[in-house]
Amino acid sequence: METLRILTLNTGLLEIDLPLLRKITLIKGKSIRIQAITHVLKQGNHDIVLLQEVGLPARRQIIENLQQEFPYHTTHHAWRLFSSNLLILSKIPLTNTQFIPFTEQTYFESWGIQKGILCATIQWNNDEYHIVNTHLVASGTEQRDTSKKSKHVRDQQINQIKSYITNNYTSDDHVIIGGDFNMGPNTSPENYHNIMSDFIDCMEYINDQERITWNPENPLIRKKVSQDPAKQIDGFYIKQNYHDESTSQLEVNRTFLNEISFEHNQQTVSTMISDHYGVELIIKKTT
């Protein structure tokens, strides 16, 4: 394996997880989109996949559909209205798997879903790589920006991630944080500067326009946020020393920018994968 390819994607497949209400879906084109996601992951060449907003029914289908391509996985379950959020799929055995819940959440999210970080370790290139999948607090009720409460909670969640990594990994460990951060250089910049005090944004050195991971022109975007600006909120962060020693081995790209077409129920269908774009991090093997 000459490269390690890691994908992060907010699937937008968060669903109600109360037994009597599971048949009520909040997802536009749910069945087609689940099949679309499994289709592109089967066709792709990613070794590790970090998914966010994966509801329990969707999670079960994705794991089942991809069990041959990704025989290893880890997730979590919390008894909430929306119980499942994070999922890691892997072609490489996972060790040290653990879910750490955030100690700070907004009131709305605290009863709806338990957010946190989902961690796993892989062996690759004669070294350990520690993978962290997360989904920080959403933007709140204010369009075009994020609420004051959300900014505060997001800062606390970032601080918890930083503390966890400091306390559990050495300065020389390869730690990769991927997910939906609901902030970026132009979105909640205070939160962005907080995470950048300890980590490097892997998208920092590419063209600004190519850093967009959420666009209101996406047909799956909800109407109430259709006036929000396009922004970078998804991606990967790594520690400064790891970045400095491996800059030439790293590459980052956006994926799933357009609709895909595939066969579904004996007919060709087209759909966006999600209301977010995916981001892939490619790490080249050292010689």
Structure description:
The chain has 287 residues and is of the alpha+beta class. The protein contains six helices and 14 strands. The chain has a six-stranded mixed sheet with strand order 3-4-2-1-14-11. Helix 4 links the parallel strand 7 and strand 8. Helix 1 packs parallel to helix 2 and helix 4 runs parallel beside helix 5. The longest helix has 21 residues. It is globular. The chain starts with a strand and ends with a strand. The mean pLDDT is 88.
Question: Which terms would index this structure?
Answer:
287 residues, alpha+beta, six-stranded mixed β-sheet, 6 helices
Topology:
Layout: E1 3-13, H1 30-43, E2 48-54, H2 56-65, E3 72-75, E4 87-90, E5 95-101, H3 107-112, E6 116-124, E7 127-135, H4 148-168, E8 174-180, H5 189-196, E9 199-201, E10 234-239, H6 240-246, E11 250-255, E12 260-264, E13 267-271, E14 278-284
Parallel strand pairs: 1-2, 7-8
Antiparallel strand pairs: 1-14, 2-4, 3-4, 5-6, 6-7, 8-10, 9-10, 11-14, 12-13
Helix pairs in contact: 1-2, 4-5
Strand order of the largest sheet: 3-4-2-1-14-11
Low-confidence stretches: none
Give helix % range: 10-25%
What is the average per-residue confidence, as pLDDT, rounded to a whole number?
A: 88
How far apart are the termini?
12 Å
Number of strands: 14
Largest sheet: 6 strands, mixed
* SSE succession: EHEHEEEHEEHEHEEHEEEE
* Strand residue content: 25-35%
Helix-strand makeup class: alpha+beta
Q: Radius of gyration, rounded?
A: 18 Å
Number of helices: 6
- Silhouette: globular
Quaternary form: single chain
